[in-house]
Amino acid sequence: MESRWQEASFTSGTSGQRRPVPEPEILPPGAPDPAPDYTYQQQIPQPSPAPPRSQPRTGWASAPATYLLVAINIGVFLLMVASGVSATTPSSAQLVRWGANFGPAVLLYDQWWRLLTATFVHVGIIHLATNMWCLWNLGLLGEPLLGPVGLVCTYVLTGVAGNLLSVGIHPEVIGAGASGAVFGLAGVLILLLGSPVLPVPQAEVKRLRKSVIYFAVFNFIIGGSTWLFHTSIQIDNMAHLGGFLSGIALGLILVPRIGSRRTTFMKRQWIAYGGMFLLILLGARFITSLLH
């Protein structure tokens, strides 16, 4: 503690010199007189350790829905091959047996489940490889914007919508493959990548969006050329168109998960996917009414 000095209080020592006497503090009765402590210690606050930074997820954990959809498609193909289906040129009967889209079976025998199962059946390994490559790239791009549940819902609903349009336009065609759903993902991404809420540099967003647009245009040209020139490779362009248009419709309502409030993101998903489900039901009812 710090002591105060008074000039009037002095004592004389043996040498005759006068020296100052410190004035004691007032202490409680019976309390010992502590020795004065003239040291001063300052507690320097230590900076708190920084919280551990979360590591970004990599591998399947960053896009579980994409991995799941690719795995299901590959798994179905392996089961087909294991059961005796040709890995390169499966027959029409084999494809129908495994759930391919076929108008008479859907419309006359009410096998509407084929609109869904056809999105996981492929006409040979090359067909599977090309569709999975597209699904892989678009899925890795779209899942951060749609979320895992959103990606699966988009795949299923746009794939079913594409197959429904195919049945309505040319019911005699046997259709199979994930390409309708892939075009649906492309349609959604074209609009979501144009959202102003994305916290991504605009130059990068524009580059990604252009690549998706080029993908859609290029594949529409390929599909149209096979129909125009009657090549040996036939592509179900109506499934592509139906998937793409339904994807555009979803994209008009959805907002990207990145940069949007969670409540807004969830609300828009309910509206978009619920509305698309109702549109598919109405479309199926309209097509069946044409038969009567």
Keywords:
292 residues, mainly alpha, Rhomboid-like fold, two-stranded antiparallel sheet, 57% helix, disordered N terminus
Explain what this protein looks like in three dimensions.
The chain is mainly α. The protein has a single domain, classed as Rhomboid-like fold, CATH 1.20.1540.10. It has helices spanning 64-82, 92-97, 103-107, 114-117, 125-169, 179-192, 202-228, 237-253, 262-289; strands at residues 10-12, 18-20, 101-102, 174-175. It has a two-stranded antiparallel ribbon with strand order 1-2. Strands 3-4 form a two-stranded antiparallel ribbon. Strand 1 (10-12) and strand 2 (18-20) form a beta hairpin. Helix 6 (179-192) packs parallel to helix 8 (237-253). Residues 1-15 and 23-27 have low confidence and may be disordered.
SSE topology sketch:
Blueprint: E1 10-12, E2 18-20, H1 64-82, H2 92-97, E3 101-102, H3 103-107, H4 114-117, H5 125-169, E4 174-175, H6 179-192, H7 202-228, H8 237-253, H9 262-289
Antiparallel strand pairs: 1-2, 3-4
Helix pairs in contact: 1-5, 5-6, 5-8, 5-9, 6-7, 6-8, 7-8, 8-9
